[in-house]
Amino acid sequence: MSEFDVIEKVFAPLAGDGAFGLKDDAALLPPYVLSKDVLVVGVHFLPSDPPDLVARKALRVNLSDLIAKGCQPQAYLLGCVWRSDTPTEAIQRFGEGLAHDQARFGLALLGGDTTSGPLNVISVTIIGVPINQQPVLRSGARPGDKVLVTGTIGDGFLGLEAAREDRLADPAIVRSYQLPAIPWGAQEATARYATAALDVSDGLVADAEHLAQASGVDLHLWAERFPLSGHGEAAREAGRLAELITRGDDYQVLLTVPPHKEHKFQAALPADVTATPIGEVVASDGRGTVIVHDENGSPVKFDRQGWDHFKD
Ligand code: ADP
Ligand code: MG
Questions:
Q1: Ligand 1 neighbour 37 (Cβ under 6 A)
Q2: From the CB of 22, is ligand 1 less than 6 Å away?
Q3: What's the CA gap between 296 and 38, in Å, rounded?
Q4: What would the pLDDT profile of 41-72 be if each residue is shown by its tens digit?
């Protein structure tokens, strides 16, 4: 079974009101919206990563879910499993990282659990409130809407690859996987103008497909419009575009807006957050597919669309 088969077959039958059938990024328990992500050593961070950055990443991968839902994050619960040989100093530095991002994003720690075990695992449950009464769901995209994505795509993947393989790697690219540059502040514009949104955690193509399926629409995306960093551009020129958009770890927000609201949406973003138009929403035959067009308009083929924890 794939990760998504497990969620659909084992957990979705147990889902309650406000869970959106376990097909969205967060759940609604009025007046709160809740989301949870787990980070595992060797999967989401490396044993050598600075503990303060691991802590901040654990908060940010959850914050990106609430930003995408147009919610203001308020508080979180924290679960930690530490290997018994973890130095106390590392746990202290982990706490300093939490303090840093708590202050930056206006979060309060409400509780959690601390245990030791065979490997380090960090789990955060984040709690926030919708800015505009209801969370922005994956299911609201309508034909004619524009598709936009915040920030740049592919840096998290390139950063992890560099950290694993390249001892001379540019620290800036390594940093982009250790500490995702989430589009903080975009929750306001998303709440006011987006018809649908989700955060990109599994890969741009896979997450675009999640949005397309939830909304019952197709998404047509143009590869030459994908926003890339300098490192991303170099990778694209080396023929690695497919990896940039199918490997995940971006924590940017993919969203749809009606064309006549795009200008207002852009104007409502903070100065340091970019959102790039990359495609449009088209009526579907029902399946909800994503078609990525290359610069000649031909569909790009992929071996895979995104990260699957049970297959990869
Ligand atoms: P995200 O990438 O936004 O964190 P996921 O792809 O991890 O979302 O999960 C998809 C959906 O499945 C979400 O609604 C999430 O809450 C739900 N989900 C995943 N794992 C579990 C689980 N173990 N129990 C309950 N719900 C789960
Ligand atoms: Mg998500």
A1: yes
A2: yes
A3: 40
A4: 998 999 999 999 999 999 999 999 999 999 99
